[in-house]
Amino acid sequence: MDEKKIMLSGIKPSGDLTLGSYLGAIKHWKERADEFDCYYFMADLHAITVRQNPADLRRRTMEQLAQYIACGLDPEKNTLFIQSHVHQHAELGWVLNCYAMFGELSRMTQFKDKSAKNADNINGGLFTYPALMAADILLYQPDYVPVGEDQKQHVELTRDIATRFNHLYGDTFKIPEPYISKVGARIMSLADPTAKMSKSENDDPGRVTLMDDPAFILKQFKRAVTDCDACVRYDPENKKGISNLMTIYAATTGKSFAEIEREFDGQGYGTFKTAVGESVVELLRPIREEAGRLMKDKAYLESVCKQGAEKAGYVANKTLRKVYKRVGFVAK
Ligand code: ATP
Ligand code: LTN
User: Fold this and answer.
1) What gap in Å lies between CA 287 and CA 268, rounded to an integer?
2) Which of 7, 11, 45 is the pocket-test mutation for ligand 1 (most atoms within 8 Å of CB)?
């Protein structure tokens, strides 16, 4: 029998998961659980590259696990774990730091964006973040890494680091492919359609999180920034707000842009915004309810991440041992 292909991805517990995290990433993870051997984790080591309140980080990490499961990731079919529970991430991260070039790291857009937003805390971890991300990925030898558009550059750097290492020491890492959806790979803020909807920007008034209640979600969509042309037409250059709403509606209903244009032909933006808001409310309702229920079952969540870390640790250790041997470390 052919071995299953491997898929892996992670999200930082740096804020509440948003509609962007769901449509750009998680939605695609769960669609593949039967076909692939899947690993999904809470990237807490990455979260501290930006200052976090310890109590909030701890709570959010467990909430994120509850939300993964509520989104449809069955812990029996997917390996769900907390990044810091598998120490091999930090260890391989260090090694790969020595194979990631200063020039490459300097070109990363996420580093440039985050340093501009956190000018008082441009720490070494923020800069070397992509080497740790490369370790997260390469430890599991995955075929695909499902992420939103903003992470493509990091996955490409991972490929470059892996190729460099393989050239120096012989085949060690499988070269992974980014897996980016056609619709929903970049959901923009409802308040500023030129900026990505981001979960850690507490001041982003245009966010919708997975745990928001229906009344708030509808309000967010009603006040979404659009234009004054009153025509529902997909034009991401000139009509960024409407195109973003169309992308969300397409992703939640499965309709094409042409179908959406026909459906709202001759109707004002008010009707369209309400329809998009309602589709999101219905999409998120079962997730919010199930996550709320799971969050009360701490013992279950702890058992899931314990089991996940054991399984992930076993796989990660095999790769790390191989790497240590290749670079010349003395075996224990
Ligand atoms: P932060 O604001 O803390 O940097 P983030 O939401 O940008 O958080 P993550 O939450 O770690 O970053 O990203 C999780 C996954 O969700 C990644 O694959 C990312 O590409 C995807 N993602 C995040 N925001 C969006 C968005 N607005 N549209 C599409 N995909 C997104
Ligand atoms: N860098 C990602 C989160 C992340 C990740 C990963 C994604 C950390 N490690 C490994 C995919 C694979 C982000 O900022 N969104």
Assistant:
1) 30
2) 11
pLDDT of 248 strictly over 80: yes
Which residue lies with its CA nearest to atom 14 of ligand 1? Answer: 11
Active site residue 199: yes
Residue nearest to atom 9 of ligand 1 (CA): 11
Give the atom of ligand 2 at the shortest distance from the alpha carbon of 136.
10
If pLDDT is split at 50, 70 and 90, which confidence band does 200 have? confident
Instruction: Express each pLDDT in 273-313 by its tens digit.
Output: 999 999 999 999 999 999 999 999 999 999 999 999 999 99
Question: Domains in the chain, ordered, with CATH?
Answer: 5-179+297-327 (3.40.50.620), 214-292 (1.10.240.10)
Token pair of 22, please?
């769901």
- Please give all residues whose beta carbon lies within 6 A of any atom in ligand 2, as ranges: 9-12, 43, 46, 133, 136-137, 145, 147, 151, 154
Q: 137-164 pLDDT, tens per residue?
A: 999 999 999 999 999 999 999 999 999 9
Is 152 catalytic? The answer is no
Task: Out of 12, 27, 196, 239, pick the active-site residue.
Answer: 196
Ligand index nearest the alpha carbon of residue 113: 1
Rounded Cα distance between 167 and 175, Å, is 12
Burial of 287-302, coded b for 16+ CB within 10 Å and e otherwise, reads bbebbeebbeeeeebe
Could you tell me the pTM of the whole model?
A: 0.95
Phi, psi of 9 (to 5 degrees): -160, 165
| 3 state SS of 170 | coil
Residue 128: closest CA among 157, 149, 160, 151: 157
SS3 sequence, 21-55?
HHHHHHHHHHCCCCCEEEEEEECHHHHCCCCCCHH
Nearest to 36 by CA among 78, 73, 64: 78
The best mutation among 82, 84, 154 to test binding of ligand 2, ranked by most ligand atoms within 8 Å of the C-beta, falls on: 154
